[in-house]
Amino acid sequence: MFLGNLSSDSRFADEANLFELAPAKINLALHVTGQRADGYHLLESIVTFADTGDRLGFSDADADGISFSGRFASLLPTSVEGKHGNLVLKARDLLRKALQDKGVSAPPVAIHLEKNLPVAAGIGGGSADAAATLRGLMRLWNVGLPAEELAVLGLSLGADVPMCLKSEPLMARGIGEELTALPDLPSLSLVLGNPLVGVSTPGIFRRLTQKDNSPIGALDGDWISFLKMLRNDLEPPARSLVREIDQISSLIGAEGTMLTRMSGSGATCFGIFPSFEAAEKAMENLNGQKPEWYFQAVRTVGQVPERIQ
Predict the structure, then answer these.
(1) What is the pLDDT of residue 85?
(2) pLDDT number for residue 13
(3) Which residues are CB-neighbours of 118 under 8 A, at least 6 positions away?
(4) Which among 69, 89, 173, 282 is least surrounded, fewest beta carbons within 10 Å?
(5) Known catalytic residue: 25?
(6) Are residue 25 and residue 161 in the same domain, yes or no?
(7) What is the pTM of this model?
(8) 78 with 143, same domain?
(9) Does residue 305 lie within any of the structural domains?
(10) Is residue 304 part of a domain?
(11) Which residues have a Cβ under 8 Å from the Cβ of 231 and sit 6 or more positions away?
């Protein structure tokens, strides 16, 4: 299998037939409401997606291949094998099998992954990459799967993949597979920050002492006021495991956020700012204080508000 080089100037990145963005996923709130008999935790989460993320390119090829570039490319697994195998390759193989079982051709493909998002960061990087792979390959191969079948295939890759397939504001329930669109959620200006410390999601859940927390409930008031009443139930155990989360949350909050919170199982934290200009200024300040960490100003998808209070 061709792995390519890990430099940012990979020729394939510019020569691909088509591209897909794998946007960062942000859990604006995450409540753990129970646990199933099989051990999976039940969640309620308000999820949105950023206008930045990883980027994947796809091209016809004589044989399957994958290449990498980007700041975090060196941290990626390059094999499909094992529990922690590369999700892009797993998504390619699962989609190909599903199509071939239907008698549909799925010829060799060269994939390039520009890895811009931190790894194991609570913003769905691997899941977003898998979802973008499914979308991109269906476009390249000019095929489709019924939405329900595609969601099941995505769920087999990871609990976050079905929501990443949609990449729109939504409420996720169950283990992440019960999705309800939130068309009224506004576009938000955020700064994402990560101390580049990987976090084990199973490790966070093992530290979670309360697993039957209150659900999110219905929207009450404006979105910012409503989000302030909510929480991320994984944040306390994550803070106890990764002390840098305290620091990065405090640094972001000191820039004048309307709300600061951790996303997913961490260690990425986000701050909501009243404007994108304010978010960009905060990002510059934070990069000056901690240049070795990851900070990114983003806009999320959603309705563009006249003004955020």
Answers:
(1) 83
(2) 54
(3) 72, 125, 194, 196, 268, 294
(4) 173
(5) yes
(6) yes
(7) 0.91
(8) yes
(9) no
(10) no
(11) 29, 30, 31, 261
